[in-house]
Amino acid sequence: MLAPALKRLVVHAAREEDLAAALALIEREKEKNQWIERTADLVKSAVSDPEGEYRVIVAERDGDLVGLAAFGIVAGTIGTGIIYSILVAPRSRRAGIGERLLFQIRDDLASIGARIIVAEIPGDPVVMRFRALLLTHGFVEEARIEDYYSDGVPQIVSVFDI
User: Which domains are assigned to the chain?
Assistant: First the structure.
């Protein structure tokens, strides 16, 4: 049974009219999370070229943008999808929105031929909610590269078989 908030949730590809709200969500999150710096560029690219390398979906509830996710196919691969980020507005967290975005990513990537999905995540506590979401839904840590981002901050590579 879906929670009432999820019944009102609509997930769709980001459009031009979503751009301002998506960028505002990213700006608010950047205050605490330096690792999403590139997400704004991915959103702009996905909106300007919906069939391009990057894809972005947004979650709306009652007309308000409450989440977004950036993903795509890894350049030069056959069947390897990648998740760049999943963001949920602070007041909307813990309501299943991140999970809905993750399921939509999985379905979208599968529909274009992806066989696996990777996520490369900094081993920083600020992104542990994202990592926990992935692990809860079947992603497995495949590699850890110590001191990748900076001293003491590894890159954690997680993989999901579609």
Answer: 4-161 (3.40.630.30)
Could you give the angle at the alpha carbon of 136 between the alpha carbons of 130 and 142, nearest 5°?
Answer: 80
160: closest CA among 144, 140, 130, 142? 140
State both tokens at 153: 């901050």
Where in the chain does DSSP place strands (E)? Answer: 9-13, 54-61, 64-73, 80-88, 116-122, 140-150, 153-161
Task: Judge contact between 3 and 96, C-beta under 8 A.
Answer: yes
Q: Are 136 and 96 in contact (CB under 8 A)?
A: no
List of residues 6+ apart from 22 with CB closer than 8 A: 14, 43, 56, 58, 65, 68
Length of the chain: 162
pLDDT digits (tens, 9 = 90+) for 105-131: 999 999 999 999 999 999 999 998 899
